[in-house]
Amino acid sequence: MDPDEVQERWAERSGVYSPEFYADMGTTGGTESIRSVLDARVDRDATILEVGCSAGRHLEHLREHGYENLHGIDLNEDASDVMAERYPELAEDGTFYWEPLEDVLPRLEDGQFDVVFSVEALQHIHPDNEWVFDEIARVTDNLLVTKENEPDGDQLLRTTQVEDFPLYFRQWKPIFTDLGFTQLARTEDSVDTLRVFYRKSEPAAETGVDVGELEEAL
User: What residues contact 92, with CB distance under 8 A and at least 6 apart?
Assistant: First the structure.
């Protein structure tokens, strides 16, 4: 499956893994773990971007907890209608791009967002479009959080199929440390690995981050 076909099939997705499907899930432990990271690291007026936001359930949780400057990107245009129905205040107050990451990110400014995060979204990026990771790093000013499926062991990339869709599981630490980030924390649940990256290269002790406490909070 080529990159365009992968994008088209996710853009037209209905039923399982559609915007309605994710909106019905509501707040989960993964949603709360993202907020725990942000609560420990940034103020409520931080500029926040979710890549692969779908109908916005994670961003709505942040909005409900006082975060004000929320942005999202998703290629499924139906997510806009679901957001307007389920989370009307988020739809009105936030800024959203209903296009592929590959089209949106190059238009954004360097360091435009204090925080960029993803939840099982980057695993949809086709290997031919891995340049988009450079763009994610470029627009992130400070904090980058990934909560993604990762391959087992030392394998850097593994392709699997779910509902006849390809997923590309990657090891995110080498990718984003090579792009100028320091990993501050890493935790795992039964499905995903959550990684917290910081733009500055100083060790955690010098940035005032207690990694042990942060991991406990997750």
Answer: none
Q: Strand locations in 83-134, DSSP E?
A: 95-97, 113-119
The structure tokens listed for 74 are 């998703």
Query: From CA 118, how far away is CA 143, in angstroms rounded?
Result: 12
pLDDT tens across 92-142, in order?
Answer: 999 999 999 999 999 999 999 999 999 999 999 999 999 999 999 999 999
Residues 30 and 119 sit within 8 Å (Cβ to Cβ):
yes
Secondary structure (3-state) at 61:
helix
Cα–Cα dist 54/75, whole Å: 8
Burial 173-210 (b: 16+ CB within 10 A, else e): bebbeebebbbbbbbeeeebbbbbbbbeeeebeeeebe
Q: 46: which 2 tokens?
A: 């931080």
Give how far Cα 108 sits from Cα of 97, 102, 113, 145, 186, Å.
Answer: 11, 11, 10, 19, 28
pTM above 0.85, yes or no: yes
